Request: fold
Amino acid sequence: MNILIIGAGKIGTSLSKDMSDRGHKVKIIEKSEKVCNGFEKITNVEIICGDGCDLQILEAAGIKIADVIATVTGDDEDNLVVAQLAKLQPNRPKVVAIINDPRNAWLYKKSWGIDAAESPTSLISKLIEEDIDKKSTSI
Reply:
C-alpha cells in the first residue's frame, strides 16, 4: 500500500517507521527544513521537504497513487486543507487525520474529506473509561 504522511513530528515519524516495518511504501512530507535535515534514515521511507498544503508538493510526493493519506501535522487547518486536496484527486485516497484541538472535532467529517480522525485527548479519555469499566466489572 502507498502511504503518504504529512508532518514529520513524533507521530508522523513513528507512524512512518511502523508502516514501513509492516511492508508499506511510505513517503513523508515535512514543512520545516530543519526537521527534514535532521530526519533519521528509515528503511523504505522517503522524506520530501515542502508544504503539505501545496498541491505541487503533494503531486511530487505521489498523492495521485497514494492509497492512504495520514495528515498528522500540529495544525488542524493544515490537516483539513490536505484532506480537501486529497479528495479532489481521481484516486480519492483514504484520509486519516489527527485532531489537535478537540474543539475542532466537528470539522473532521467525511464532508470535509476526512475518513477517520481522532484526538489524543479523546483516545486517552476512552482508555481511562475502558480501564474503569474493566475494574468495575471485575469487582
